Amino acid sequence: MKTKIITALLTAAMAVSFAACGQTEETTSSGEAAQQSTQVSESGSQEGAEATQEQTLTVWCWDSFNVDAMKTAGEIYEADHPGVKIDVVETVSSDIQTLVQTYAMSGELNALPDIFLMDDQVFAKYLQNYPEVFADLTDSGINFSDFAASKVANSVSGGRNYGVPYDSNTVIACYRTDYLEQAGYTIDDLTDITWDEFIAIGEDVLAKTGMPMLTNVQGEPDLLNMILQSAGISVFDEQGNIALVDNDGLKYAMNIYMELVQKGILQEQTDWSGYQGSINNGTVVGTINGSWICATIMSTDQAEQEGNWAVTNMPKLNDYDGATNYSAQGGSTWAISSTCSNYDLAVDFFNTTWAGSTEFYDRILTDLGAIATYLPAAESDAYNQTSDYFGGEAIYSKIVSYGSMIPTVNKGIYWSEEKEALGVALANVLGGTTDLDSAIAEAQATVEFNIGQ
């Protein structure tokens, strides 16, 4: 049976590779990525090839945004380390996950790159299922206390560190200040508040402006999960079992979400495009999401929006022990493979850039808009620069400071299964096809079935 599974996975990996043949040259298929992790590119001079054979670190990551950030780190490191090359291979996130699983199950770990990027929401799952893939970084000299604790927790197992945090997943609340002013409010009225206070303001703003306060994709429980983490609420027990039924915190958070929708304070969209459009077209007051949403907000062609946005923290649960105004959403983390061709070089590379240089973070913030979870970056000049789009406020240093206050929560290894089940549960209750308790019980049963518990 195991042989059949491995064969199927290898076939899938090959299929992904063939499908990628029609992509642009900037995107390398998973098959090519695997080959580049063990072979030197034939392009360039023989002298360059010999150098890369001796001192090359191959990196897999997805999206031009992440690729450019890693290339920037490579340029900085290469400038002070002649003969070293950081070879960045753009590889789709799902392909990385497939190949990690494939090569782990087949025992072909040498086919993996030296460094790869892993989605925070699945890092723990792959670390638990395939621990042999990940290099232990606990005693590497990387100072993990320099990163937001909630971010570091995504790549910790058994008290050991297996990842280097990358982009900020800190949650922010962004609001149109011109819409708030029409209703007699300022951003200060929405700072450090509870959900009860937010709902009262939201009803008033809706009555006076006709604008819902928030937007979200229908059937996606992202905001629900943000509310849960803000209060340190987990939907998994200490043994990693799904724990939805009799979870008072979950029920409390779901009731908050449903009240937002039912009162028209939160407008649900049919898809991500609709979500983006509601922000860019100015049909909602704001949104609550990971800090990466700033790029979406600033992508509008409506010039009147510039200067009319502000950033603050999210509301917190009322009278709930451990509740805060801070949470996380999305993000990713770097890993060094256990078969890295030069572990010491890879560690030094990270210590020099991702885990040790505010100048590096200044550069990727200025050039790419990449926001860090590296806490020392908040003190740099670039992070303290003001944003004209957000009313002349230094939003980046604020975001980094928020990251240090996010509660750490047990997210389990079946995050994607939990997310899908809770999304269905919310949709069913809001659609009137079931009650909340029944929806939660059904979600619990669905997750248990899907993960074989």
Automatic annotation (TrEMBL):
<feature type="signal peptide">
    <location>
        <begin position="1"/>
        <end position="19"/>
    </location>
</feature>
<protein>
    <submittedName>
        <fullName>Extracellular solute-binding protein</fullName>
    </submittedName>
</protein>
<dbReference type="InterPro" id="IPR006059">
    <property type="entry name" value="SBP"/>
</dbReference>
<dbReference type="InterPro" id="IPR050490">
    <property type="entry name" value="Bact_solute-bd_prot1"/>
</dbReference>
<dbReference type="Pfam" id="PF01547">
    <property type="entry name" value="SBP_bac_1"/>
</dbReference>
<feature type="region of interest" description="Disordered">
    <location>
        <begin position="27"/>
        <end position="49"/>
    </location>
</feature>
<keyword id="KW-0732">Signal</keyword>
